[in-house]
Amino acid sequence: MLDLTAFVPKARFQPGVALSPDATKVAYSSNVSSHYGLWVAPVRGGEARCLVEFPDQAVRQIAWAPDGRSLVFMADRDGDEQYQLYRIPADGGTPEKLSAADNRQYRLAADPYDPNGRYLIYAANDRDETVQDLIICDLHDGREHRHIPVGKASYQAGRVSPDGRWLVVEGFNSNIDSDCYLVDLAKPDADPVKVTDGSAHFDPVGWTADSRAFYLLTTVWGEFIAGARYSLDDQSLRPAVTADWDIETVREAAETLLWIVNENGRSVLNVRRGDNAPTQPPLPPGVINAIEVSSNGAIAALHLETATRPAEIAVLDLASGDLTYLTDSRPSALATIEPIEPQTVTFTARDGRDVHGLMYRPHGEGPFPVVMWIHGGPEAQERFTYERSGLYQYLLDRGIAIYAPNAAGSTGYGVTFRTLIYRDWGGVDLRDFEDAAAYVASLSWIDSKHLAVAGASYGGFGALSCLTRLPDLWTAGISLYGPSNLVTLAAACPPTWRAFVNIVLGDPVADAQLLTERSPITYVDQLTAPLLVIQGARDPRVPQDEADQLVDKLRGRDVDVRYIVYEDEGHGFTNRDNEIAAYRQVGEFLISRLKPET
């Protein structure tokens, strides 16, 4: 039988791409050697070049300077999410640090430069660790134009119009409540002007080619995210593209308009050139995690992933529809086995809602043991991606099925479905997980006596809730950096998240009774199934104490618990060796509990 390493991608990529101004090169972040470094590959194919690789930092977002002679990027240390800004010449050299405070968070704008390269635009909490200010740095004289949000909003620095006159930014309150603000870059000290109004989601994603309007994503008209267009000429907001699913992004370049629709977990790219009818390039069914379009509308650079092929950096010819992969991260196992595509399945929850999910069935007749894997977020979605560095396909090859429900709180199924979990963690979601377990157990090809539950981040909380509050259902469980105590989690959240956490989770003081009632730690004495806990010591979102307090109580009762802490990791994995080691432990643990005879 194949080892997990045979399923691990040769490289993983941060979810972003940066197309050079002349559209001849693509920059991206890859961990092909160890940590995530900055790589540049020619669009027409050829050997990629590593410009930056730090021994203990991970490169995140990347952008080109307008003249193509340098790049700026964000990097954090061992996953601590204290992003610093750097600049490096496009032909290589020593990175120049641009950010001033080491223990603060700097975030590049989606378009961090104006077209002339005078201004560098980013957000930072260097003035007040609880607030993200908007900063427009004049690179000519070094002057910093700082804008402080009004109220509890947090600025997410956005996109610059093609003519360089306007910057549109998002004022973020929560995932369903945000506004768009305009900044006149001819008067960079003038206060941002709010141009949207209403308790809805408004997220700017791009400009029209003539700079007279910008595109944004919004829920103002209904349950699903629509693509809208805000006109600077008459201050009107009108639909641009809509669907019966969420619109993920909209881009315009020259006479080409692109938009992506999330159709039940798959990204469907639509391209309209001029006045022609829109077309859908024949991309493999999967997820487009990032897209950038050349200024002439001829090509697009993609971060593309499917359930049976790991994430890759690719280039799409928008006229012909031809797709060219610039990377090949396929592991050796995919050359010898037939990877398994998930099937979309649906069950009806006890309150009448349809709950969608993805079911992976191993080759053969069965019956098969199954892992119910709960996604993170909770505002996220299980999608058609190559999950957990090949762990899904590895377990399938060992005859273990995987079911991944999109329970209450998941994105992709409307605002009402998404917000069911607000201030109700461990309530409606746990009922969905119980119904999901019953659905899985009803399938004739499932071994209902061998059912595990697992998840990472919020998914770890979901798994721990299942194990402590529905203890009779499970053979084993896994929590990767999952919270166990909602009171301490809310109290220790990153400073810039405080207002958001109060909306989505609750206040650690005012809501202490409810948060205690919903915390897995409250029911830890009911947990009996073998448990694997994996945690990063530098995690800023789910501190190590969340795992420590749980494990201490379990060890005091002699429960079979295995606890692994990675001292140089945060929320997830930035070190390739750590990631492989962790998922090997996950795989071995599940196989030993679900298929002990093998």
Describe the structure.
This protein is α+β, with helices and mostly antiparallel strands and 598 residues long. The chain is built from 9 helices and 35 strands. An 8-stranded mixed sheet has the order 28-29-31-30-32-33-34-35, with helices on both faces. It is globular, with a radius of gyration of 24 Å. The N and C termini lie close together (10 Å). The mean pLDDT is 94. This is S9 family peptidase. Keywords: Hydrolase, Protease, Serine protease.
Percentage of residues assigned to helices? 10-25%
What's the end-to-end separation, in Å? 10 Å
Percent of sequence in beta strands: 35-45%
Rounded to the nearest angstrom, the radius of gyration is 24 Å
Q: Indicate the structural class.
A: alpha+beta
Count up the helices.
9
Low-confidence stretches: none
Largest sheet: 8 strands, mixed
Q: Which term fits the overall shape?
A: globular
Provide the fold topology.
Layout: E1 18-19, E2 25-30, E3 37-42, E4 49-52, E5 57-64, E6 70-77, E7 84-89, E8 96-97, E9 106-113, E10 119-124, E11 133-138, E12 144-147, E13 154-160, E14 166-174, E15 177-184, E16 193-194, E17 202-207, E18 213-218, E19 226-231, E20 237-241, E21 246-253, E22 256-263, E23 266-273, E24 286-293, E25 299-306, E26 312-317, E27 323-325, E28 343-348, E29 354-360, E30 368-374, H1 391-397, E31 401-405, H2 415-419, H3 428-441, E32 446-456, H4 458-469, E33 476-480, H5 486-491, H6 498-504, H7 512-517, E34 531-536, H8 544-556, E35 561-566, H9 576-594
Parallel strand pairs: 30-31, 30-32, 32-33, 33-34, 34-35
Antiparallel strand pairs: 1-2, 2-3, 3-4, 5-6, 6-7, 7-8, 9-10, 10-11, 11-12, 13-14, 14-15, 15-16, 17-18, 18-19, 19-20, 21-22, 22-23, 24-25, 25-26, 26-27, 28-29, 29-31
